[in-house]
Write a structure and sequence with these properties.
The complex is a heterodimer.
Chain A lengths: L7 H5 L2 H13 L1 H18 L1 H4 L21 E2 L5 E2 L10 H37 L1 H15 L3 H12 L3 H28 L2 H8 L4 H37 L11 H9 L8 H28 L6
Antiparallel strand pairs in A: 1-2
Chain B lengths: L1 H28 L1 E6 L14 H10 L4 E3 L5 E3 L2 E8 L2 E6 L13 H10 L11 H4 L2 E8 L2 E6 L6 H5 L7 H4 L4 H5 L10 E7 L3 E6 L12 E6 L3 H9 L5 E2 L4 H9 L3 E16 L10 E2 L14 H9 L3 H8 L4 E3 L22 H10 L7 E7 L6 H14 L3 E7 L1 H9 L5 E7 L5 H8 L19 H11 L4 H17 L3 E14 L2 E3 L12 E3 L1
Parallel strand pairs in B: 1-10, 1-11, 15-16, 15-17
Antiparallel strand pairs in B: 2-3, 4-5, 5-7, 6-7, 8-9, 9-10, 11-18, 12-17, 12-18, 13-15, 14-18, 19-20
Helix pairs in contact in B: 10-12, 15-16, 16-17
Amino acid sequence: MSDTTAPAPVEAKEETPFRRFVSEFAANKVAVGGLLVFVTIALLAIFAPWIAPQNPYDLAQLDIMDGRLPPGEVGGTGITHWLGTDDQGRDMLSGIIYGLRISLIVGIGSAIIACLVGASLGLLAAYAGGRTDSFIMRLVDLQLSFPTILAALMILAFLGKGVLNVVIALVIVEWAYYARTVRGSALVERRREYIEAAQCLVLPTRRILFRHLFPNCLPPLIVIGTIQIARAIALEATLSFLGLGVPITEPSLGLLIANGFEYMLSGNYWISFYPGIALLITIVSINLMGDHLRDVLNPRLKK
Amino acid sequence: MAINTRGRKLAAGAVMGAAMALAAHGAQAQNLNMAVGAPVTSLDPHYHQLSPNNAAAGMIFDRLINTDGDARMQPGLAESWRAIEPNVWEFRLRRGVTFHNGNPFTAEDVAFTFQRVPNVPNSPSSFAAFVRPITNVEIVDSHTLRITTQNPSPLLPQDMTNIFILDRETHENATTEQFNSGQAAIGTGPFRVVSHTMGDRIEFARNDSYFGTRPAWATVNYRMITNGGARTAALLSGDVDFIDQVPTPDLARVRADRRLAVSEKVGLRLIFLGLDHLREDASPFITDNNGQPIARNPLRDLRVRQALSIAIDRPAIANRVMEGSATPSAQFLPPGVFSHIPNYAPPAPDAARARALLAEAGFPEGFRITLHGPNNRYPNDGRIVQAVGQMWTRIGVRTTVEAQPWTTFVGRAGRQEFSAFLIGWGSNPEGSHPVRNILATANRDRGWGASNRGRYSNPEVDRRLEAALVEIDDARREAILQEAQRIALDDVGIIPLHIQTNIWAMRNTLQHEARADELTRAQDVRPR
């Protein structure tokens, strides 16, 4: 589909609103801070193999005799474990950097796919109306009436573990939010004159949908998107914490927290604590950006 | 004067108050709050063969032959027993024993119990195997029984340590539901049931007419707290006085706490790795280093199995993963138990020799394997498979680890879907039990190899087991069983890792007789 080219017109053709958007966004220091933190995390995640002192997913590099070393201790492999090690002798700093990688892949990946699926269905519902609309919207209702975690747990129990399966499960439980949002704003836009004009020119439906209607529904979608990325990251952590997300030898942040949780009473706080902090910082930075994006993109909040 | 009188009244009140407080304290000391880690699934003692159920039943009922903490046979409802012919056992029953409702215990009740055991509807894991050898029960007099078996049955007394005795009058038509409601949960044991909430708690009161040692507790609150952290927290906060299955991560903390005491005993449960012996050709989870299937199953080669075994650093697992609550082992039974093989220790870890053995077997570059295991069945099961994965990877057998919930895992293991897997086996204190269930060639009709999920098969082992099962002489039977185990273990039919230590924790005002069979019962706990 031509979805991938969709955001382009906003930037290319309408340069001025984009610049206005950038300057408005930059005016809020907290949001810029959030963006900076997020970019740092993203860079860490992308360059993980070069930054992390150890490959925490390679069993041959782990030694059980280095298990549960406190922060700052040097292990048998000669690595200084600045954030300590977990029960398998895995360097926590490396584990967190690689874990961030999984969190971001799962969060952003599932958000993009869910957005594509949800937005297409939402547009279709709004434009086609009638039975198609009812059918898609009842499907959305059905999806939204189901507790997210429960649905994700069931899907994963069926699909089995693995990063890809987590992404699939998250897409299935999240698309409905996008569909509903896009349908709402598309219904409003549809009655505008420029759509009527396009219809009078007998432009093909696909062109009207994706070149005219979709770009004008983008602002709320971007807001929902950022919030859903944070939600997806938290959900992945929850699923992994419950033991249904990623394989135990390739822990994400949620699984690292779950592993350390059992050692809390014996005082080995670092196994849970540091991945928890990393998860917190990631989600807060995304939410800060998302909140401010909503303010900037919402016309009703304009001064 | 008035003040003086009031002062006296006050003083008298204070004395009374103190006396009441003392009385209240006395009453409190008579009550025991205990929390166990595994839920009791039924109070019907013949419904489900499961350690938690046997523990609860062991407080309510008795067996003809009870067992002590070391799993040795002790007179229970039978005072003595002997074989009067190779296939006839005579039991002399204890006189003057009554059930909780006052009914006298007689030989009739034992005969009734044997009839009921195989006929419990919907039993998920039946006790029937223990009474199957019995062909005839003869009631000689009200307190003497003769039990005839089809073949010479040296294991009959051992089997009798698994069967709880019911009352014919009370339980003639009793259903499992009636047991669960507490209505039919009437035995001869040291405690009677006051109330039972399935999966949550059982309340017991002392049976004052118990024939054995009088229990120290007038009432017992037996709670089920399945989450390990929550169980430890309940003990630390004083909510309960006694817990079982102390989670190993909390062990250090519990041991260091001076308000608490710990009791432990090497158990009868071996944790081991099962291997795919079934397939001659490709095994489902083994590939070469490029991910291509290998035409022959490397695990059929003894040298490969030996390499995988000596690659494992068992002391490291016992000390680091199990935090000392396990003993490395090369066999099913711990020292001191019937048919333990003396001087048969696990091999010292030797990665260089493991590599050499792999090279000899034609795999100088190793291969890839997936090691499966449960993640919620045994203490630290998920961690143990990862640790083994590390050690195998280091000798060139690149290992992927997959830990799954027990129910999924055990189903797949039972269908021979795995190449290598971690599992455990809790033995009776008699070598024929693990040999028959784990090492013998699987055969449904004979009931052999019921849990032989790797499908190890060795006619030498089978032949010795056959001989042992009908050998009445204990010394000779022990020698045959030791030989059978040695043959299978030298052949690396399974890779034993360690025997678990059972650990309980309590307030330091209590003492506990630890049990090898994992059962957590209130009569084993006393004030210090």
